[in-house]
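Below is a filled-in request sheet from our internal design queue. Each sheet records the structural input a requester submitted and the sequence that came back. We keep these sheets so that new team members can see what a complete request looks like end to end.

REQUESTER: design group, bay 2
PRIORITY: normal
MODE: inverse folding
CHAIN LENGTH: 318
BACKBONE (tokenized):
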């Protein structure tokens, strides 16, 4: 049974992801599709996938995540400047206008309502002042210049939508932070992270998103990306990887298996929780069976209205 989703994109309560980027993939796709973030959700916890994609339960924003969104916006706009003008000083000047646009979004002003001017320095649990928070974003932006020389880079795309329909009909789509193309046609996929580089044991999970993009680009351009590059601004480090065709084929089969499992879960409404250490950061423990909670009834009516196909009864209401 094929799962369908609404065709008109709209804002998602969880549209700012854990890395701080605006998770435009969290918006409802135009037709059945799989994105890196939603695939990762289902792999982590099928019930989390349901809460975010089907129920669309609200999630709290965090100062760290919004700071990441701000830094991403600054680095994207940096490449609007001529190469010689891409300096640390110019990047710092981009922070205030980017913040002016971001601060009016729902839920952001509330993060600073109880902020203390000096509390963030003396109490780790105290919210930062706006000035201290903006300064921390500025430090991340400055750290970027120690990892790349933007005067020598001319991206082909920034916040680039990449998508492809596989032979079995599955639509893969996502947004790449930056796509570089060398004169010889070699591709480099770049993603900015405002946290620190993961330990070696967790590198595969970090590269999942990048392999997703590499697969889509290979299927659309016929070129295997020469380099996948994750830039970690938190500790000023980078993680690079070079995939090959055989690996991307295996990864494609993995995504197809994930999507088949999603279709089965949507059809039956059976989304199981998966309790891990990541649960400590989840906003939905109160309605999660793994923590003694009871999920809301599966929203079959809303799912049907959004275009999902299920075998569950839809209750007609007056």
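RETURNED SEQUENCE:
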């Amino acid at each position: 049974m094929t799962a369908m989703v609404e065709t008109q994109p709209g804002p998602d309560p969880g549209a700012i992801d854990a890395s701080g980027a605006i998770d435009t993939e969290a918006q409802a796709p135009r037709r059945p599709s799989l994105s890196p973030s939603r695939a990762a959700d289902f792999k982590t916890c099928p019930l989390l996938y349901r809460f975010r994609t089907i129920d669309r339960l609200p999630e709290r924003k965090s100062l760290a995540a919004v700071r990441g969104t701000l830094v991403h916006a600054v680095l994207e706009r940096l490449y609007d400047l001529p190469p010689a003008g891409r300096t640390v000083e110019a990047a710092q000047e981009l922070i205030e206008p980017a913040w002016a646009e971001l601060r009016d979004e729902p839920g952001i002003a509330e993060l600073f309502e109880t902020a203390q001017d000096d509390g963030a320095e003396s109490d780790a649990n105290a919210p930062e002042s706006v000035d201290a928070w903006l300064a921390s974003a500025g430090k991340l932006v400055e750290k970027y210049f120690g990892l790349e020389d933007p005067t020598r880079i001319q991206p082909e795309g920034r916040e680039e939508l990449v998508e492809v329909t596989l032979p079995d009909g599955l639509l893969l789509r996502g947004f790449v932070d930056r796509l570089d193309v060398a004169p010889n046609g070699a591709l480099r996929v770049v993603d900015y992270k405002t946290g620190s580089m993961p330990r070696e044991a967790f590198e595969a999970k970090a590269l999942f998103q990048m392999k997703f993009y590499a697969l889509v680009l290979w299927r659309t351009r016929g070129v295997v990306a020469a380099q996948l590059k994750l830039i970690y601004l938190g500790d000023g480090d980078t993680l690079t990887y070079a995939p090959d065709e055989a690996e991307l084929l295996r990864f494609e089969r993995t995504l197809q298996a994930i999507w088949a499992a999603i279709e089965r879960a949507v059809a039956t409404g059976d989304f199981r929780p998966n309790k891990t250490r990541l649960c400590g950061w989840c906003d939905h423990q109160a309605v999660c069976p793994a923590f003694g909670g009871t999920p809301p009834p599966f929203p079959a009516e809303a799912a049907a209205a959004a275009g999902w196909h299920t075998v569950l009864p839809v209750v007609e209401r007056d």
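SHEET NOTES:
- Residues 1-16, 18-22, 24-30, 116-124 have pLDDT under 50 and may be disordered.
- The chain has ten helices and six strands.
FILED BY: M.R.
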